[in-house]
Amino acid sequence: MTTALLDVRAISLRFGGLRALSEVGFSVNSGELFSIIGPNGAGKTSLLNCISGRYSPQDGEIRFEGRDITRQKPSKRAAIGIGRTFQNLALFSHMSVLDNIMVGRHHLLKNNLFTGALYWIGGAQKEELQHRRKVEDVIDFLDIQHVRKATAGTLSYGLRKRVELARAVALEPKLILLDEPMAGMNLEEKEDMARYIVDLNEEWGMTIIMIEHDMGVVMDISHRVMVLDFGRKIAEGLPEEILANPHVRKAYLGEEDPLLEEPEALSA
After folding, report:
1. 29: Cβ–Cβ under 8 A, 6 or more apart, which residues?
2. Where are the beta strands (DSSP E) in the chain?
3. CA–CA dist 202, 32 (Å, integer)
4. CATH 3.40.50.300 occupies which residues in the chain?
């Protein structure tokens, strides 16, 4: 049997009397592009925050590569290969694009308090060159060569979203969490971002969990889809199964659930 790369087991998250997640469970296998959809306030970002370590669920368990990471800090999760982007941009606005992306590789640096001096003499320059080459590969992949020296805060919204993706990719994650990567983009920018995400999955071998409101994109590129509503999982399956699910259409699209229609209407 294939061991799931990520296994989320019945996690619940509460903020005082507000229950953000209620016993949500799912698994993602290595190489999957797994999407999470649902109406605003359904708990999607809260779920990603639990996986990345920003939130700690009160109940349940999160396992990555078979290891329990439920109580690990975000830095530890980044070090073992979990990267993410944010719904609201989290770039260093006054830093260059290149420096923002380099931040994504900080956990890969080998020097520490005890070996720093000797390391700087013997290997720092060589390692710096290796990191720069990796970053340049990411820059080339995402077609942002022309802004590599620009200040991040001066870029258009679409380009800033691409830079934030570049920083997450520079971490060389095994699993990357994308929180609405296409929000606020025009059609052309969305098409480009969708292509980058598919290529990261298929060519770079990254497992992806994506939150996205554009149903067309989700259904076109996802291997499997999970639906949340009011903090609960209401469906999970192939894109075509999700599209055909009447409970999903009611929760997400506001359509009437045929299972709840009046008997008279059904017999008419």
Report:
1. 2, 4, 5, 207
2. 6-15, 18-28, 33-37, 59-64, 67-68, 82-84, 175-179, 207-211, 224-229, 232-237
3. 9
4. 6-81+173-267
Using one digit for the tens of pLDDT, what is the confidence trace for 33-88? 999 999 889 999 999 999 999 999 999 999 999 999 999 999 999 999 999 998 77
**Confidence category of residue 266, pLDDT binned at 50, 70, 90:** very low
Q: Regarding the domain delimited by 6-81+173-267, which CATH topology (the fold level of the hierarchy) does it fall under?
A: Rossmann fold (3.40.50)
Structure tokens at 224: 């499997």
DSSP-derived secondary structure for 218-255: HHHH-SEEEEEETTEEEEEE-HHHHHH-HHHHHHHH--
Whole-prediction pTM value? 0.85
